[in-house]
Design goal:
globular
Length: about 300
């Protein structure tokens, strides 16, 4: 029962804290806009340049494509496009970790589907499934294998890269080592737990019992794995790994927000509001601290 409680609590806190941070980001005052062109949302300026280059631009309609904007954002979220273009060797190991996490998320959802069939009394085995059931069965197997292996490989190589790259090592904090080690430990224990369950039949059984709050006998290794995953889910949204929450705001309110600041517009009101904000004196950055009093 306590493993079910840990699983549910960690998921609820992960979602809840992530939503809370998104709300905080949405309420922040206007950021200093970069307006780096070309912007993917501007129609007619794909070659470069900007709507503001037009003669009497204020009197012309500003045509925007939100579909293209979302497509460009998904390239960064799903494939880490900027890192691929600028640091290709580093992209391979970073994307291995991210792709592994995406596959594990897919694997978890497929396990839930399999668990629901278990709860409904449907035997989940390769010999007793419909075409749709076989597809779910094989997809869960493939995503599970690839997700655990790629995620572990990516996390391990990123740790080594930060340890032995002389340049990167200078900018790596203890927290970043802890972040990667936590993910690595959760993934390694996952591999150890499920290595003897190659069809993930036991994984579906465990998921079904977690969903139904049915007590079950858990090995020490499985208990450690569930606890580590729970800690990781709670920790991620309160750490710098919560950048997944800020992606939307980074694109929409910093890089691609080029709404004109016209008199009486909503942009003008946002700028007036932002101009009244004063930086907190509790910031730790050296340039934000008040100067020391001169010694007499």
């Amino acid at each position: 029962m306590y493993l079910s409680a840990i699983a549910y609590l960690s998921i609820l806190l992960f979602v809840g804290i992530s939503v809370y941070k998104a709300c905080r980001f949405a309420k922040m005052p206007m950021h200093g806009r970069m307006e780096l062109y070309p912007l993917p949302k501007e129609m007619g300026f794909e070659h470069g340049g900007s709507f503001y280059e037009e003669v009497s631009w204020w009197s012309k309609p500003h045509k925007v494509s939100h579909v293209r904007e979302i497509k460009e954002m998904l390239k960064e979220i799903l494939f880490i496009k900027k890192l691929f273009e600028n640091q290709r060797p580093f992209w391979w190991i970073s994307y291995a970790l991210h792709l592994g996490i995406y596959l594990i998320m897919a694997w978890t959802m497929l396990l839930v589907v399999g668990a629901i069939t278990e709860l409904n009394g449907i035997a989940v085995s390769a010999n007793s499934l419909s075409i749709w059931g076989l597809l779910v069965f094989h997809l869960s197997t493939i995503t599970g294998y690839l997700g655990l292996l790629l995620g572990t490989l990516g996390a391990g190589l990123l740790i080594l890269r930060r340890l032995f790259d002389n340049t990167l090592k200078k900018y790596t904090t203890p927290q970043e080592y802890f972040n990667l080690l936590l993910i690595f430990a959760a993934l390694v224990t996952g591999i150890l737990v499920w290595s003897s369950d190659l069809s993930f039949h036991f994984a579906r059984e465990v998921t079904a019992k977690l969903i139904s709050f049915t007590p079950f006998e858990a090995s020490t290794l499985l208990t450690v794995h569930v606890i580590l995953v729970g800690i990781m889910l709670i920790y991620i949204p309160i750490s710098k790994m919560s950048h997944y929450v800020g992606k939307y705001f980074t694109f929409h309110t910093v890089l691609w927000d080029n709404r004109p600041n016209l008199k009486g517009s909503s942009v003008e009101q946002e700028i007036k509001k932002a101009s009244t904000v004063r930086p907190s004196t509790t910031w730790s950055a050296p340039h934000m601290k008040p100067p020391a009093s001169p010694k007499m």
